[in-house]
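Task: complex structure prediction.
Instruction: return structure tokens for all chains below.
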Amino acid sequence: MKVIYSSYWGSYLAMVAASLHIGRIKTKKDFTLHLFNNVKDHELGELIPVGKDDEGREVFVVGAKKSGTILEKTLKGVAETYGFSADSVVFIDLNHFYNSLLGLGVFLIRRLNLVSIGTRLVVKGIDYVKLKKVVDSVKYKPCIRE
Amino acid sequence: MKIFYCCYGSAHSSVVAASIHLGLLPSNRVPTFREFIVLPHYDKTESFEIGTPFYMGKDEYNSEIFILGMGSERKLVKRAILSFLTHAGINTQDVMIIDTLKNVNLITKIGGFASRRLGLVTIGRPLTILGIQQRYRDFVKLVMQVKTKEQNMLTQLD
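Output:
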């Protein structure tokens, strides 16, 4: 089973969610610059492995821009054409977590290369409680093994 | 082998290319209006179905042919499919993802927008067909190139 956290860039929100999922970070204080990857424009769409969770499920992040809904259907559909069940892919689109603070932070990091201040804004912009709730709902949902 | 013909909404150009591939449409002449509208999925795929691969049939080499709407981020979605398959341990040499949208002209785009987005099927559908009829030779050429590549790939895989 593959758990895929998706956000616009796959570098910030998705990375935090995936790191929470595999237990790499526990609280908001653990958010650091090293946590964030730096997916380039031409790498968007690539599934980036983050690790495995306690259940042995592979956890990935992906930068899907605004195509998360389409990508979810595609990956589940493609999985089915290869004989996997649609449940073998758990896809979580996190784009609805974006807010202006997060957007500004990402803009500063990616476009103006103001990494330090940008990262601080990104960390501030992430609603940790809500994100954790989503991650937990994915993590502790009973799964059927392939 | 699996071949995915892809366009924006899997309603027009991918359906036509897949249908030529499977012999549902002729390769030696431009089909009539009627021949288009009876095709499965032609001008029927709804917006919420974009992203879902639809099976169209098996060709003479036993390859499975699909159509897929990828929306506006086709390169990204293609990259995701190949990346997903690689991580799933599937040989991506066995997959072809063909973008058919480059063969779509303005008339088909306007027709597609009218039919699929605005729901003006009576106006939009004939326009999509007219545009495709004008570019039909390019569709046949594309499919022939795909089949040649498919044969070469199958030979290599043997």
